Amino acid sequence: MYKVYIADDSILVRKELVLTTPWESLNCNVVGQAGNGHAALEEILKLEPDIVITDIRMPKMDGLELIKELKAKGSNAEFVVISGYSEFEYALSAIKLEVNDYILKPISDTELIQTIEKIISRIEERKNTEIINHKLRDTLLIEDIKANMLEDYADKNLSIHLRNAIEHIQSYYMEDLSIKDVTKELSISESYLTKLFKQEINITFIEYLTQVRIRKAIELMKENKLPIYRIAEEVGYKDYRYFSLVFKKMIGISPKKYQNKIIK
């Protein structure tokens, strides 16, 4: 349900709004009310209502100042200004604060209901837009990783020794693999292989091994729903916490969060 907060110095007005408005049928719930702006400010920041109905004229802090303070503190509430004053300057001040809804006293039940319905539609539209944008950002993130993050160097013109080293890493990345193991297998020196990595693909042995392991981890995430500690083990990390740190440093988010995104 949508949370509604009412700020008005007249207790009779507040009671009327609470008791005579069909909040339940509007899918709303009045979560709080106050008779002055200061009290309303503190409670609204704590309760985070979706809709704030506020009178302009209130002691300690008027309705427009209340709205200004709430917006400055990051409130995302929709505001309805009610007032017994029809002077243009009040409406103009509300418009400057991007208040879309302004109701004059005495409050018409029909007008209030229509206003609340309009606000709810606006909130729903905003939420749907945020969901779409969030999904788009997630898709772009994943596609960017697919396209750019883990180069396989297959199309590069590599020396035979470096190509053999890369093939060995791709075959045994899940083991406790070191540059010493690879150079022993290829019968070349560590310094020579280190030089080849730097000269031909401009990364270190460890950086390439890490890329292969993270790429394989992402493939496992797409194929099944293994827990993160199992994925870490499958790609050569005995400590899944260290794997999580490496994954987050390379991808930008934790492996669990990434897994949740691609599963959705």
Per DSSP, what share of the residues sits in E-state strands of 2 or more residues?
Answer: 5-15%
Number of strands: 5
The unreliable regions are none
The share of residues in helices is: 55-70%
Largest sheet: 5 strands, parallel
Question: Which class of secondary structure composition applies to the elements?
Answer: alpha/beta
Total helical elements: 12
First-to-last CA distance: 25 Å
Explain how this protein is built.
The protein is α/β, with parallel strands linked by helices and 264 residues long. The chain contains twelve helices and five strands. The chain has a five-stranded parallel sheet with strand order 2-1-3-4-5, sandwiched between helices. α2 (37-47) packs parallel to α3 and α10 (228-234) crosses α11 (240-251). It starts with a strand and ends with a helix. It is rod-shaped, with a radius of gyration of 30 Å. The chain is 61% helix and 11% strand. The model has no long low-confidence stretch (mean pLDDT 87).
Summarize the structure.
The chain is 61% helix and 11% strand. It has 264 residues and is an alpha/beta fold. The radius of gyration is 30 Å and the shape is rod-shaped.
Descriptors:
five-stranded parallel sheet, 5 strands, 12 helices, alpha/beta, 61% helix, rod-shaped, 264 residues
Q: What is the fold's blueprint, element by element?
A:
Blueprint: E1 2-7, H1 11-20, E2 28-34, H2 37-47, E3 51-55, H3 63-72, E4 78-83, H4 88-96, E5 101-104, H5 109-149, H6 160-172, H7 179-186, H8 190-201, H9 205-223, H10 228-234, H11 240-251, H12 255-263
Parallel strand pairs: 1-2, 1-3, 3-4, 4-5
Helix pairs in contact: 2-3, 10-11
